[in-house]
Amino acid sequence: MPQYPRIGVSIAVQRGNTVLLVKRGKEPFNGYWAFPGGAVEFGEMLEDAARRELSEETGLTAHGLAFLGFADRIARNEGGKVTHHHVLARFLCEAFEGTARAGDDAAELRWVALEEAAKLETVPQLLELIGDIVK
Fold this sequence. Notes:
By secondary structure, the chain is an alpha+beta fold. The chain has 3 helices and 7 strands.
């Protein structure tokens, strides 16, 4: 495990008052609901990584991405030791084409409103991020 943060992307896909969530199929946060996303490959631009990850995990093609800023995702074990640390470049996608389907490391996906997301087991800070997007 590297002793430095890894760089990743997270894409909030909005459709009306709902956002697309994927149930993670691997660590970190296996089984938790999150925005689609993943690791940035060496030599890959952040926006290109966001488009690739969105396509791989959901089958959707982004037509417009807006950069929202950066967020830390830090996972700890029961003893408090850091097990994963990712710095995520966050994007908003409101224009896309295709039919959403779970792919790659997404175990399943669904469109949810903030109220429904609050009932799911989500990655840290996801509800606040949804609240910032869906007004």
